[in-house]
Design brief:
This protein is of the alpha+beta class. Helices cover 43% and strands 14% of the residues. It has 3 domains: 2-183, no CATH class; 186-341, no CATH class; 347-430, no CATH class. Strands 3-10-11-9-8 form a 5-stranded antiparallel beta sheet. The chain has a two-stranded parallel sheet with strand order 1-4. It has a two-stranded antiparallel sheet with strand order 2-5.
Length: 456
């Protein structure tokens, strides 16, 4: 790779500098024939990057890792992780590089990260490369999540490399440029703890506080405050997933960020027919990461973070464990409150007062439970239903009723719900018209893999 003193791109190397034990300096594999497939121009502008320059030959070299910006130290990050419940103490970026951090228009640091840029020392048996289809999937799903107001890593660009990637067949290769508040994960803390180096663990926690939760630095117990902030962020995030019907697919601890952003869009999708048992990973035979299990898995992952942080909670582990459990116990309450508030809004009932009549809070949870039972029993399309329910709030009940093979039970539910005076406009503001429909995404990716980007 060659360095270029371009005023267009200047990155810092804070992670590489502060946590050298978790950062392996590395170079991307040279792309034989880079070709831009998609560029996120609004995101580029947020980062102070010129879209015109990114489309230039030097810009493409940056986006595949062949050009090192001023101030950057490309590194493969080390982290551990529980994958489908089994612990691996050394995972790391097997096919990715952190180029460095860029300050956005508001002065916040954002990671610039490459995915599919070649083998690193963490690659194990993998080739370190990525194919066009999966990288375009991450682009379209992550940008949809952003548009839906759900915290997420973002996609700046996808560049075809001109290199073939062998999977079941030969596929065209690509590199995704990912942008995140940071790539710190639960697995990052598991890695630091597994080394036995408590100073490294403390420096990592202090780095996370400075980067994400600066108020924790002023708390009486900063590291416990950090953990509580992550618990709250993840409770809010997973509630938002559940409210729009998003299924992450692979909620390993190395795929849970400290910032509370959604990361890693592999086998993920949005629910169509409502079914809490829905899974989207072909290897998730037991349904560990099914849609309905996501809140439970999130709390399990946070328990692993608590275990990693125990030495920072108290020098005596017997005293540290109750402190960790007390903080972790906030997750079910926070998740339930976020989900319940969100579901009330989806149903247009956020303004319904708690008074001792048919509008009391006990009525709304039973309405929600009864509705989800109806949706599950008849496998009703989740997104379409809530949009049509907005019309029903205006008195147009036909479209919603038409989704049910036998609308008798739904009619009874509808009468109870309409008696509460739902806010149709409020429903339309939160219930999406569009989601990335699975069959349309797959068709677009198949076409793009064959060279036709128009569907994408």
């Amino acid at each position: 790779m060659s360095a270029v003193p371009s005023p267009t791109v200047t990155l810092s190397n804070q992670f590489a500098r502060d946590l050298a034990e978790m950062a392996v300096p590395w170079e991307a594999e040279k792309a034989p024939d880079p070709r831009l497939l998609v560029l996120n121009e609004p995101l580029a502008a947020e980062l102070g990057l010129s879209p015109a320059w990114l489309r230039s030959p030097d810009g493409l070299r940056l986006l595949v890792g062949d050009l090192v910006p001023v101030g950057a130290t490309p590194v493969a990050q080390a982290y551990a992780g529980h994958q489908f419940g089994g612990f691996n103490p050394r995972l790391g970026d097997g096919r990715a590089l952190l180029l460095g951090e860029a300050a956005d228009a508001e002065g916040h640091l954002r990671d610039i990260h490459l995915k599919g840029s070649g083998r690193t020392p963490f690659a194990r048996a993998g080739d370190g490369l990525a194919a066009v289809g999966p990288m375009l999937r991450e682009y379209v799903i992550s940008e949809a999540m952003h548009a839906l107001g759900i915290p997420t890593t973002r996609s700046l660009a996808v560049v075809a490399t001109g290199r073939s990637v062998r999977r079941e067949t030969l596929l065209p290769g690509a590199v995704l440029t990912r942008v995140a508040d940071s790539h710190l994960r639960v697995g990052s803390f598991q890695y630091a703890r597994a080394t036995g180096d408590i100073d490294l663990l403390r420096r990592l926690a202090d780095h996370a506080i400075a980067r994400h939760y600066p108020d924790a630095a002023e708390a009486q117990h900063p590291h416990r405050s950090l953990f509580e902030a992550v618990v709250a962020a993840q409770a809010s995030l997973v509630a938002r997933w559940m409210l729009v019907g998003f299924v992450h697919g692979v909620m390993n601890t190395d795929n849970m960020t400290i910032s509370g952003e959604t990361i890693d869009y592999g086998p993920c999708a949005f629910l169509e027919a409502f079914d809490p048992a829905t899974v989207y990973s072909s290897i998730d035979h037991g349904g560990r990461y099914a849609y309905g299990n996501q809140p439970v898995v999130a709390q399990w992952n946070l328990a692993r973070l608590a275990e990693a942080l125990l030495p920072l909670f108290h020098e005596d582990q017997d005293q540290a464990i109750p402190l960790a459990m007390e903080s972790l116990d906030a997750f079910p309450r926070q998740y339930s409150a976020a989900w319940s508030d969100g579901m009330r809004t989806k149903l247009g009932l956020s303004g319904v007062s708690a008074v001792p009549d048919s509008r009391d809070d006990a009525t709304i949870p039973s309405l929600v439970d009864d509705l989800l039972t109806l949706l599950r029993e008849d496998r009703i399309d989740y997104t379409s239903f809530f949009r049509r329910l907005g019309a029903a709030a205006r008195g147009v009940t036909g479209p919603a009723r038409a989704l049910f093979p036998d609308a008798t039970a739904f009619d009874a539910w509808l009468e109870r719900w309409r008696a509460l005076g739902p806010d149709a406009d409020g429903m339309d503001r939160v219930n999406p018209v569009y989601i990335p429909r699975n069959h349309l995404v797959e068709a677009a990716l198949d076409a793009a893999t064959g060279g036709d980007q128009e569907p994408f």
